[in-house]
Each structure stands twice: as structure tokens, then as C-alpha cells.
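Hi there, hope your week has been kind to you so far. No rush at all, and the record is pasted right below.
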Amino acid sequence: MNSIPEQIVQAVGIMFLGMGLVFVFLTVLILCIKLVAMKFAPLPQEKATRTAENESTQPAGVDPKIIAVITAAIHQYRAKA
């Protein structure tokens, strides 16, 4: 049977071998994922610039009728409570 110091040295060697293999495997895995991501990544699309027509068709704020309806609903809810 081996002596205790020899077993400790052997255990430390096996530990570093295992940690090294895991490190190499994870490094290769990350590199492969990055390569696949670069190859299959969607192409960037140009954002459509806003024109004066787009800005004028969108409402500037909330319709005053909507505000009145929401206010009435809040008052009615608080009156019940």
C-alpha cells in the first residue's frame, strides 16, 4: 500500500487533471457557441426614419374624453368604498 504523502500527491494530480479538463471543455464550448451565434445571427435591419407624416398621424396626448371617463370611474369606485 502507498504511503499517505504519495496518495496526497496522486490525489492533487488527479484533481488538477480533472479541473484542467473541465476548463478546456468549457472554453471549447463557449467558443463553439460564439461561432454558431456569429454564423446564424440575424442581420441588423435599418430603422425606419420618422417622417413628418408619421409624426402627424400619431396623437400627441390622451383624448380628453378618455380622461373624463377614467376620472368618473375613479370617483364612482371611491364612492362605493
